[in-house]
Amino acid sequence: MEIHNVVDIYDNGGELYVITISGARIRLPNCDYEYEIDISSNFKNIRINKKEK
Amino acid sequence: MNAPIKDAKVEFNNGLGFFPISLFIDFYPTDPVNLNDLYNTITSFNNVQDIIFRENVSNNLETLSWVTPKLISEGYYISLFSNNFVDVNYNRLITTITHPNQFRKNIKFISVLTQNDIIILDFDDPNFILLTKKLLLKYEIKSKILFNSVKIPASEILGLKIYDIYPMEVIA
Fold first, then answer.
1. Nearest to A3 among B65, B73, B75 (CB)
2. Which of A14, A15, A27, B141 has the fewest CB atoms within 10 Å, i.e. the most exposed one?
3. Do A18 and B69 touch (CB under 8 A)?
């Protein structure tokens, strides 16, 4: 699952949150993630995946 | 095994959503739906940005925990029906109370609902509305309150001089 236009990613007490360009603060499920920076906008596109056991 | 989505229908929402019209999603009470099927179904309804997850939400919390971050990041307004705390992203929680005793039993949950959230009083006795109104005041509940105006006509509520709850003709 991909989330676009992410301004910030941060960890709050073990829970992962993203802030999007619209200002939404979204808590992510228990996941692994990777991201790339969209060069045209400078925002991040992140891909979240279920944690590997 | 994934279940199909039971129903996905665009309807007037009687004030339940952020916009007047919502896409109502109902689930079967059996297996959860597939994550991608759910996302693709929702996005196939172009221009409907207001989503209400209605039936059997509790059976699909894992799926919803993955799809709601993406939907909210894309500007969707997400409401969901639940009578308990849920570990899912949402904009609005909608809870239904069918008896004043249920209010007392679930006060821990109800008291943390915010101004964004909605409580539906699904009673057939106007006295239950009066009783629940007192409880709402006592516990300083901030949520928007709707009542089932199919079971209790709005004129009866006016007769009781209750002016701060909204009629809802179609109960979910």
1. B73
2. A14
3. yes
Chain A residues touching B66 at Cβ < 8 A: 1, 29, 48
Per-residue model confidence as pLDDT tens digits over A7-41 = 999 999 989 999 999 889 999 998 989 999 988 88
Q: What ipTM was reported for this prediction?
A: 0.85
* Distance between CA atoms of residues B149 and B157, nearest Å: 9
Among residues 1-53 of chain A, which lie with CB inside 8 Å of chain B? Answer: 1-6, 18, 20, 22, 24, 26-29, 48
Q: What is the pLDDT of residue B68?
A: 96
> Closest approach of chain A CAs to the CA of B77, in angstroms?
11
Alpha helices, DSSP H only, in B9-115?
35-44, 61-73, 100-105, 107-110
DSSP at A33 = E
Q: How far apart are CA B95 and CA A22, in angstroms?
A: 27
Tens-place pLDDT, residues B144-161: 999 999 999 999 999 999
Task: Let me know if B160 is exposed, middle or buried by CB neighbors in 10 A (0-12, 13-18, 19+).
Answer: middle
The pTM score is 0.90
**B46 touches A at CB < 8 Å:** no
